[in-house]
Amino acid sequence: MTKTSLLVGPFNRVEGDLEIRLEVSEGHVSAAYVNSPLFRGFERILQGKDPIDALTITPRICGICSISQSAAAARALADVAGAEPAPEGEKVAALLHAVENLADHLTHFNLFFMPDFARPDYAKRPWHDRAVARFTALQGSGLRAATEARAQLFHIVGLLGGKWPHTLAIQPGGATRAPSLRDKIRIAADLKTFRHYLEEHLFGAPVEDFAALSSAEALENWRTGDIGLFLEIAAELDLNSSGVGQARYLSYGAYPTADGHMFAPGLWEQGQLVPLALDNLQEDLSHAWMLGEAAHPTQGMTVPDETMREEAYSWCKAPRLGGEVYETGALARQVIDGHPLARALADENGVHARVVGRMLEIALTQIAVEALVQGIQPEAAFMRDVTLPKEGEGIGLVEAARGSLGHWLRIEGGKISSYQIIAPTTWNFSPRDSRGVPGPVEAALVGAPVAEGEETPLSVQHIVRSFDPCMVCTVH
Amino acid sequence: MSEIETFYDVMRRQGITRRSFMKYCSLTAAALGLSPSFVPKIAHAMENKPRTPVIWVHGLECTCCSESFIRSAHPLAKDVVLSMISLDYDDTLMAAAGHAAEAAFEETIEKYRGNYILAVEGNPPLNEDGMYCITGGKPFVEKLRHAAKDAKAIISWGACASYGCVQAAKPNPTQATPVHKVITDKPIIKVPGCPPIAEVMTGVITYMLTFDRLPELDRQGRPAMFYSQRIHDKCYRRPHFDAGQFVEAWDDENARKGYCLYKMGCKGPTTYNACSTVRWNEGVSFPIQSGHGCIGCSEDGFWDQGSFYDRVTDLTQFGVEANADKIGIAATGVVGAGVAAHAAVTALKAAQRKTQTRTEKEEA
Question: ipTM for the complex?
Answer without folding.
Answer: 0.76
